[in-house]
Every structure is written in C-alpha cells, then in structure tokens.
Design a protein that fits this description.
- The protein is mainly beta and 141 residues long.
- It contains two helices and eight strands; from the N terminus they run ββββββββαα.
- It has helices spanning 93-102, 107-113, and strands spanning 2-5, 15-18, 20-23, 26-30, 43-48, 55-58, 60-68, 71-78.
- Strands 2-1-5-6 form a four-stranded antiparallel β-sheet, with no helix packed on it. The chain has a four-stranded antiparallel β-sheet with strand order 3-4-8-7.
- The longest helix has 10 residues, at 93-102.
- The chain is globular and about 40 Å long.
- The two termini are 24 Å apart.
Length: 141
C-alpha cells in the first residue's frame, strides 16, 4: 500500500511513501512526507490485495502525529474501512521505541523488526483469504 498525492492519475504517479495497514481503517506511515502532518499535503491511500486487480483509493478522515523514541510517525484514520486485511501489526510504543533506538533512529527498520510487515505474508488473518488477502473474499469462500 502507498500514500500518494490526492487525485494523481498515473499508476505510480504521485506516490509519496509506503505505509502499513494496521487496522482495516488505520494506516501507519513512518517518516511522513513534508506537509502530511500539518495538513498542507492532500493525500489518498492506495491499497491492493495479493494478485488482486482492484485498487482501493481511500482518503484519510484524520491525520495524527505520533512521537516515539525521538522519531515521528503519521497515523491516518481512513474515511472507510478497507476490504483488505491488515498487512502489519502496530507494536506497543515501548517496544517500538526500543527498536528505534536499536536501529539508530531508522523508523522503517524499527517498525519492521517490531512486527511489521516483512513477516506478514499471505495467510488467513481475520477472515482474509490466502490467495487474495481479501476479507470475506467471495471467490474463496
């Protein structure tokens, strides 16, 4: 999944930064791009399942800054829930702070080492099918 400039038409045009879907309606963005946290940058979240052709575009309903371990992350609450299963688990803040320190301030590596998303592969999680990572997939039921 990625965060992109709102209204970008090209398949990869306007992509700003990748993030992680940690709940059906919540995305975490390490190293948020300039303007995201202060509202100057209008974005949308693009989500796609494994092997799935349809791409969801969901606007954030709110953007919050989280400071942990000297680093800053953006947490986007989405206007609607994605039909795709989360691809990461939000670590406890104490665990994430320790991981940030262990990785020299690299938020992305710290987040991955604390449980996201490198070890999250296609599997049945929260009702998501293995083939498409879609919650309640009609083709796989």
């Amino acid at each position: 999944m990625s965060i992109r400039t709102e209204g970008a038409a090209q398949p990869h045009g306007g992509d700003l930064v990748p993030g992680w879907l940690v709940e059906p309606d919540r995305v975490v963005v390490p190293d948020p791009p300039p303007g995201l946290l202060d509202g100057d940058l209008r974005v949308e979240v693009l989500l796609a399942g494994l092997g799935e052709g349809e791409v969801e575009r969901i606007s954030p309903a709110g953007v919050n800054a989280v400071r942990v371990g000297g680093a800053q992350l953006a947490v986007l609450d989405l206007e609607s829930a994605s039909r795709y299963a989360p691809n990461a688990v939000m670590p406890e803040l104490v665990e994430l702070a320790a991981a940030i320190a262990a990785h020299g301030g690299d938020v992305r590596k710290a987040f991955e080492s604390a449980g996201a998303p490198g070890d999250v592969g296609p599997r049945r999680v929260g009702g998501a099918c293995t083939a498409h990572n879609v919650v309640n997939c009609e083709r796989c039921q």
